[in-house]
Amino acid sequence: MSVHVRIPTPLRKLTREQEVVEVAPGTIGAVIAELQSKFPGIKERLVDEAGQVRRFVNVYVNEEDIRFLQNNETPTKDGDEVSIIPAIAGG
Predict the structure, then answer these.
(1) What pLDDT, in 10s, does the model give residues 5-56?
(2) pLDDT tens per residue across span 60-85
(3) Closest by alpha carbon to 28, among 87, 68, 56, 12?
(4) Contact status, residue 11 vs residue 21, Cβ threshold 8 Å
(5) What angle (nearest 5°) sits at the alpha carbon of residue 3, between those of residues 75 and 28?
(6) Number of neighbours of residue 48 by Cβ within 10 angstroms
(7) Neighbouring residues of 30: CB distance < 8 A, sequence distance ≥ 6
(8) If residue 36 lies in a helix (H) or strand (E), which one and from where to where?
């Protein structure tokens, strides 16, 4: 049983260039914790000091933004796809 996490290009140096990483189902918080245990340093790029997903990082579960679901408590199940998408700043 696994959840597929799509890693954006800027973070792939932390995942040894892997585009998709498999983690155990749980919550988004648990997914991030498992990513951190496998790839030290990735968590600080995804969440702030309070443990919330950073403002400029978008996380989707099966193409649904977790901000419109349950944020870090959003459940994931076997076969789900989690996408991490850094916001593009412009102006």
Answers:
(1) 999 999 999 999 999 999 999 999 999 999 999 999 999 999 999 999 999 9
(2) 999 999 999 999 999 999 999 999 99
(3) 68
(4) no
(5) 35
(6) 11
(7) 24, 76
(8) helix 28-38
